[in-house]
Design goal:
With 273 residues, the protein is an all-alpha fold. 77% of the residues lie in helices and 0% in strands. The chain contains 14 helices and no strands. The protein starts with a helix and ends with a helix.
Length: 273
């Protein structure tokens, strides 16, 4: 009995540390939610209790900005990017590992080196390319550059290493085509990796600011990060309205992560193994 108590007491510092760390981690979220219900003056005064200005802030936000349009544009970009990225990068990762060769290893090394190139170095040539094709101020101009990333290809390749290749050989003997093997066997088996890649891609696409700011010109096609930047760019900033906008912009990513958090953890740990 005494040994059990001693073991539990030894674990107390760890639980205290985790509790304090959790409070620090959740505090920005709490302050954002509380600030969305307060006036700008209360936010600047760091008021920590909910106020009664939520409806006023919402009225000001929706009157001054096209929130519905910005949410729809961000949603279309995030969903479109996620779906296309999952298809392309999973096929690439599947091909790199299942059809393994030294030549493919060199190509993969080149792709990984491309991750070291900052986006600012490729932004101007990319803009000129889309301008030549007449795609400026188009949502597709935001989606296309993000549908294939070396990180996701590497994620699927590493996860495919744990995929039982004997199943592929058996399916080929049974007469299944490579596309059928990918769609009917590979995707259901690797659903945790797909969930992890979906969370990463959706959050990245939703929060993307620099490239949409460059390629999207019309006010009718703004995204939520651009709308938030507009709220904070005036001579007089209403911080209650700003915090409400930030809260609305954060909700979709939080919902996606909460829905897929278990699969996300399994997918990431599976890729690391």
């Amino acid at each position: 009995m005494t040994s059990v108590i001693k073991r539990r007491l030894r674990g107390v510092p760890g639980y205290v540390f985790l509790t304090v760390w959790t409070i620090f981690s959740l505090f920005p979220l709490y302050f954002m939610v509380v600030s969305a219900t307060n006036t700008s003056k209360d936010v600047l005064a760091s008021k920590m209790l909910p106020g009664g200005a939520l409806l006023d802030n919402a009225a000001k936000l929706f009157d001054s900005q096209d929130v519905v349009g910005a949410m729809w544009n961000s949603f279309a970009i995030a969903v479109g990017t996620t779906v296309l990225a999952l298809i392309l990068t999973s096929i690439a990762g599947y091909g790199f590992e299942v059809y393994h060769s030294k030549g493919k290893d060199r190509v993969m090394a080149i792709l990984l080196l491309a991750m070291m190139i900052p986006f600012a170095a490729t932004m101007i040539p990319l803009f000129q390319l889309f301008a030549r094709f007449g795609m400026i101020n188009s949502l597709w101009a935001v989606i296309i550059p993000a549908i294939s990333t070396p990180f996701l290809i590497l994620l699927f390749r590493q996860s495919t290493r744990s995929f039982p290749h004997e199943i592929i050989e058996a399916a080929r003997i049974d007469g299944l085509s490579e596309l059928s093997i990918y769609a009917r066997i590979y995707i259901p088996t690797m659903r945790a990796t797909f969930a992890a890649a979906a969370v990463i891609t959706f959050m990245t696409a939703w929060n993307n600011f620099l490239w949409p700011k460059v390629i999207l010109i019309s006010n009718d096609i703004f995204t939520m990060p651009m709308l938030i930047a507009n709220l904070g760019a005036g001579y007089v900033v209403d911080y209650g309205v700003l915090m409400l906008g930030v809260l609305l912009a954060s909700l979709p990513t939080m919902i996606v992560f909460l829905l897929l958090q278990r699969q996300f953890t399994a997918g990431i740990t599976g890729a690391i193994k």
